[in-house]
Design brief:
binds pyridoxal-5'-phosphate; 35% helix; Aspartate Aminotransferase, domain 2; alpha/beta; Aspartate Aminotransferase, domain 1; 14 strands; 7-stranded mixed beta sheet
Length: 357
């Protein structure tokens, strides 16, 4: 039976990425060797790294003055690396979920942290508005897509201080005005590559403003100067990331992805709003994520949660159980997820509702 992979992360990747990676594991760039057993300083791999950085810049239309880094450690290491490199006295954070909170906790180890606004009062089911970003903060940190709760900031906001964004789960789902950000980072395993590589887009001029000693590996300058080759980079995930970037370009680039992502999310949200037994967890339509679509059973159908999960599993749906802090269901509709998978889930929901409502 065909599997429909709605996993939140690690998550579905383009077949192209998987096929090309499998090939390179056997024979990389006609070297007769696996990509896992060659030097990262070989001309073949250096070409992969350079092309990946170049294509990343091209697809996101990244202006001059920014660097693209491919690092280890996951987005979680960035939670500490950002304040280590930028926080002198005070930083401001927007608290929109569990990942924001983890970022806040790390920053608190380096200085004062002001929470500009929080949606924790309603279990993070909305994006706060009408708050003030303090003009004396060293930077303002946001999480653009809240993978667990299914809310998303879809506009590039104006900030009086350098703007830092965790875009782990919505990078490449919409065009971004990079010039509004000082740093954008994310783990690759949501919309780009297998786990193991973290991308960082960084404007060089924000560095050099803190006095503390920064360990070499946690200093952005190290990786900018050595173009992500200071130490051994995560070779295989970087190769896979390049394949996804090639696939993105061949499929019309980010504008096309956005159209497709909006179409997929629209189909599923319409069904959730229409179906008699399900409801969305995000009341404000404009706050709903295009990547992680959360829904629950209506109150009178609570006991059907487990039966629906079993039914959906029997229909090939993978990874739709909601995160424990929200419950219910979460369908992640990343770029590589085909429209057919969304339609198959909708049919499953309709069939189940007919049987039970
Ligand atoms: C998954 C995720 C993270 C954590 O990423 P790791 O690479 O596992 O450290 C951080 N932020 C967001 C928004 C995520 O979705």
């Amino acid at each position: 039976m065909k599997k429909h992979n709605f996993s939140a992360g690690p998550s579905i990747l383009p077949e192209f990425t998987i096929d090309e990676t499998a090939r390179a594991v056997r024979d990389f760039a006609d070297t007769g060797l696996s990509i896992m057993e060659i030097s990262h300083r070989s001309k073949e791999f250096v070409a992969v790294m350079e092309e990946a950085q170049q294509l990343f810049k091209e697809l996101l239309d990244i202006p001059d003055g920014y660097h693209v880094l491919f690092l280890g450690g996951g987005a979680s290491t960035q939670f500490a690396m950002v304040p280590f490199n930028l926080l002198n006295k005070k930083a401001a954070y927007l608290n929109t979920g569990a990942w924001s909170k983890k970022a806040i906790k790390e920053a608190q180890g380096f200085g004062e942290v002001e929470i500009s606004a929080s949606s924790e009062d309603k279990n993070f089911n909305y994006i706060p508005r009408n708050y003030t970003i303090p003009a004396d903060a060293d930077y303002f940190h946001i999480t653009t897509n809240n993978t667990i709760y299914g809310t998303e900031i879809k506009e590039d906001m104006d900030s009086p201080v350098p703007l830092v964004a965790d875009m782990s789960s919505d990078i490449f789902s919409r065009p971004v005005d990079i010039s509004k950000y000082a740093i954008i980072y994310g783990g690759a395993q949501k919309n780009l590559a297998p786990a193991g590589v973290t991308f960082v887009i960084i404007r060089e001029d924000i560095l050099g403003k803190v006095d503390r000693y920064i360990p070499t590996m946690l200093n952005y300058k190290t990786h900018i100067e050595k173009e992500s080759m200071f130490n051994t980079p995560p070779v295989l995930p970087v190769f896979s990331a390049l394949q996804t970037l090639i696939w993105l370009k061949d499929n019309g680039g980010i504008g096309e992805m956005q159209k497709k992502d909006e179409y997929k999310a629209g189909l599923l949200y319409d069904e959730i709003d229409r179906n008699p037994i399900f409801r969305s967890t995000i009341p404000e339509v404009g706050d709903r994520s295009l990547m992680n679509i959360c829904f629950v059973m209506k109150d009178s159908f609570q006991e059907l949660e487990k039966p629906f999960l079993d039914f959906a599993t029997s229909r090939g749906m993978i990874g739709i159980k909601g995160h424990r802090s929200v419950g219910g269901f979460r369908a992640s509709t990343y770029n590589a997820l085909p429209v057919e998978s969304v339609k198959a889930l909708i049919e499953t929901m309709q069939e189940f509702a007919q049987q039970h409502a």
